[in-house]
Amino acid sequence: IGFLRELNADPTVHGILVQLPLPKPLDARAVIEAIDPAKDVDGFHYHNVGALVVGDPAFYPCTPWGVMKMLEHEGIAVEGAHAVIVGRSTIVGKPMALMLINAGATVTVCHSKTRDLPEVVRRADIVVAALGKPRFVQGDWIREGAAVIDVGVNRVDGKIVGDVDFEQANGRAGVLTPVPGGVGLLTVA
Ligand code: NDP
Fold this sequence. Notes:
The protein has helices spanning about 1-10, 30-35, 45-55, 60-75, 95-100, 115-120, 165-170, 185-189, and strands at about 80-85, 105-110, 125-130, 145-150, 155, 160, 175. By secondary structure, the protein is an alpha/beta fold. The strands form two sheets. Strands 2-1-3-4-7 form a five-stranded parallel beta sheet. Helix 3 packs parallel to helix 5 and helix 4 crosses helix 5 (about 95-100). The longest helix has 12 residues, at about 60-75. It is globular and about 50 Å long. It binds NADPH dihydro-nicotinamide-adenine-dinucleotide phosphate (NDP). NADPH dihydro-nicotinamide-adenine-dinucleotide phosphate binds near residues 89 and 187.
């Protein structure tokens, strides 16, 4: 935390990104709150989380922000669309929901306690899969023509696969992001 304070005060440092998770006994929340919100490029400080809730410009978490940029780039209408997000993490699912609400979507957030997940996903114009379970979202959960954004990164038999069954969903979805080579590239950028 002392080192972060030094970086906060250093005018030659413009952004600070703490790689999570942190080893014990470090308290990740205390570390994040020690970052100057004006340098919190990950957007995890309460100040920036609050700005996202309100819809004010701030540093936003990069993975869901990358998804927003992707939708914009592909000309996918967000306003008025029904977006279903699978996953409610602080890093992906929740900020994704806030960004989509702010952009005028009707948003449903699903998680491990959601009943009838396939039925909920079938009602989506936009599906964001961020649950961390390989090929979990099945092709017949996808409404014909839906935009499917696969955030998942899972290692199976030495291969990286997403949270969506790509083979099944390909052809039903109007657009579908690959894993690897999709959302991850934007997160890195
Ligand atoms: P977390 O493990 O923090 O959250 C997973 C979420 O999925 C939880 O909300 C959990 O529900 C929900 N979930 C788990 N199992 C099910 C299920 N069977 N049905 C419905 N919901 C379920 O993961 P992250 O959000 O950090 O990451 C999600 C995925 O995205 C991972 O594969 C991760 O590697 C990847 N990722 C990719 C990035 C990229 O740049 N491409 C960046 C960040 C993450 P509950 O809350 O009830 O437990």
